[in-house]
Write a structure and sequence with these properties.
By secondary structure, the chain is of the alpha/beta class. It has 24 helices and 21 strands. Strand 17 and strand 18 (about 565-570) form a beta hairpin. Helix 11 (about 250-265) runs antiparallel to helix 12, helix 12 (about 275-295) runs antiparallel to helix 13 and helix 18 packs across helix 19. It is globular, with a radius of gyration of 26 Å.
Length: about 650
Amino acid sequence: MPTFELREWQRDVLGSMPRDLLGMGAPVIGVKAPTGSGKTLLALRIAEKFKPNVVIAVVRTWTEMARFWEDARRFGYKYKPLAFFAKTEHCLELRRRRKASASVGGDEGGGLEEDEVDVRCDECSLRNNLYEEHGGFVLKYPLDGLLSVYSSVNPNLRYPEYRRLVRDRLSLIDPEYRTGGFCTYDHLRTIAKEAVRSGTPILLIGTYPYVFGPPSILFRNILGGGARIVVIIDEAHNLDTLDFLERSISNARLERLVSTCEKYCSKEPGREPCSGLDRLRRLVNTVEERLVRIVGSYDAERTFKHPKPGHLWELVSLLSLVRDEAVKFTEFETGGSGPVRGRTVLSFIDTVDFMVRLYEFKARCRVGVDSYWDYDPSVWGFYITRGERSARLVAKPFAVKPIIQYAWARFNGPWILMSGTLPGRQYIEKVWGLNVSWYVDASDMVHIGRRKVVISVREGLTSSFSERSEEMFRKYADKIRWIVLNHSEPGVYLVVYPSYKMMKGVTWYLADLPVPQRREGEVRHLPDLVEEALRLYTSGGKLVVHAVSGGRFTEGVEFVRRLGDGKVESLVKHVILAGVPFPNVGDDFVQDRVLASGLDEWEWFNVHGWMNTVQAIGRAFRSEDDEATIWLLDYRFDHLADNWGITRGAVWVRRE
């Protein structure tokens, strides 16, 4: 078993843990500590003190699962890590179909979004592969051996490599696995269930939906009814916006609905629903035209706006007509057999049903829930928004308190909330509805890396809404260009903007910058971006990464070089804050969140501006040896930097 020593601050925190905490049924613990300080290990150790059967750790994105997996293995954690990711990634039949689609000119996804594929494990021949064939639920192989296999493979590997490593290690248990014939998802689920049943300690790792969304049914089925659990919420500041719960209809989704029905009818043109294909096309064309026109009448680019009552009624009414016509095509998806079926039509119908029910609920101004709702639908709102290629009608929750409380009731046990930007106790209790039993603020106990801070005070730079203009965008571009070209450090130059619109405006003036650049929203697979950054860094090159505050580039990616023995080096050598990343005050979704929080408007914006700023800076510091320069390009940082603790502990601070 690996040996290690806790850091002094970790020992101090564990030593100060209130004794009565362990006797509480389901306390909520908050841990605020800088990125790279070792709060993951601290949370795992706190969890262990409650002596649960199962520790559940949920993270925001798939790429962040590896951190818990690595720490559990590196530090000899007695809870074996099992990382769960989408079964659509595991499914061999789906992969076969997608490969066949690509080979005949289709796209690798077979034209399907992840939520438009129905993977029915109960109809798969590979199901229950680990159990004896004579019946019952008796494992063919020792549980410890199976746990060792699946807990030893990095969940962030590309799936073919992940599967190859699993297969090679399984073949040491049974040579028959060399020929394939198994499902990694079924194995993970079976091993986790048997570990819970036998009382073997395990660490279940997944993304937020495994606790806060529909996939939570998997973890609840694994746990059964009697497991003692502790839940760790990583980067818990993200609980403020559970974006994965939103439902939306876009013109692109409407086009997929039609193309899917056309594909079904091209294969079986004699089926009854196909006689209504022309009517479906006409209805969809009408809805698309109205959706684009209505959304275009609002200033809703990358921003959420409330649709006017008449516009909302029109869109919901038109969508209900499309739904009624689309229902006729569901027989293509509900019929047949096999483990993989499309659900483009069914998924569309589910979304429209939700929107119609929500509209009816709000139109009648009722408060409370019926059997359809898991929690109070009054915390959901309708919004319209526009991206570069699509217009959308969106339904999403603007208050997270009932959602978090619902999850807490279902996963009832100690909860540990951890983040470098965890809001204070009062915010957690008032906005999230969780009563905090113990709050640890290690901000002054530990400082990670060497931080140099430059604050632009006299250059007239600001992202203030009232002063945004093409001239301001050009000034920002000139400053960013100067920073990149006048500093020799290889690595990532991370530029963080308050919004997509501002990123688009500034980067237009940087098109001729003689350094590779990548923009938020243009990179689909984040590990590819990290690989590019590492390749450029090792060859002495630079990569300019343009990120939007709160986006994947500032929350869901680790720009690091692995040095062995669990040590890492950050590739981010400069963090450039192109303005103060306050949420968009002109965004109706933001305004609904402020109102629902019960906080004063400035208090809410101050908390979120601080969180966004510190999160961005944290990308540069993953270990004690990291060194980076932080550029705060907005005169408002002259006082905010001190108030938000950015200058505290810095090697030096320069105002210019």
